[in-house]
């Protein structure tokens, strides 16, 4: 007599909290990376050169720039919020797609 094959356990969905937290963490990390690039770019000197054919004194002027810290905070927080939204979407849509996948 042949042994009966054991039934395969059905995959269980991950909890919403785990999925949302993973994607939120990924969004925050991406936001921190974007904020670091913005901070580096904003720290570079930016001069506006007035074009001329003859070299003149004061041919360049320093341009004032707004503080990048508000934009950096928006990048980090916005990345986290966007990650949470994507995590919720992936949890809802992704699990329903996995259940309908052919075996």
Largest sheet, spatial ordering of strands: 1-2
Order of helices and strands: HEEH
* Parts with pLDDT < 50 across at least 5 consecutive residues: none
Helix segment count?
2
State the total count of DSSP E strands: 2
Main sheet summary: 2 strands, antiparallel
What general outline do the C-alpha atoms trace? rod-shaped
Helix content: 55-70%
- Average predicted local confidence, pLDDT: 79
Structural class: mainly alpha
Distance between the termini: 27 Å
Radius of gyration, in angstroms, nearest whole number: 26 Å
Strand content is: 5-15%
Structural summary, described in words:
- The mean pLDDT is 79.
- The chain has a domain at 16-41 and 67-103.
- It is mainly α and 103 residues long.
- Helix 1 packs antiparallel against helix 2 (69-100).
- It contains two helices and two strands, in the order H-E-E-H.
- The chain has helices spanning 16-43, 69-100, and strands at residues 47-49, 60-62.
- A two-stranded antiparallel sheet has the order 1-2.
- The radius of gyration is 26 Å and the shape is rod-shaped.
- The chain starts with 15 loop residues before the first helix and ends with a helix.
């Amino acid at each position: 007599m042949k042994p009966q094959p054991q039934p395969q356990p059905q995959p269980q969905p991950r909890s919403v909290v785990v999925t949302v937290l993973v994607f939120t963490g990924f969004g925050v990390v991406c936001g921190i990376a974007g904020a670091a690039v913005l901070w580096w770019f904003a720290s570079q000197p930016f001069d506006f050169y007035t074009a001329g054919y003859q070299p003149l004194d004061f041919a360049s002027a320093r341009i004032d720039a707004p503080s990048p810290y508000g934009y950096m905070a928006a990048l980090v927080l916005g990345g986290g919020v966007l990650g949470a939204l994507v995590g919720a979407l992936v949890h809802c849509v992704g699990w329903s797609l996995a259940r309908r996948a052919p075996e």
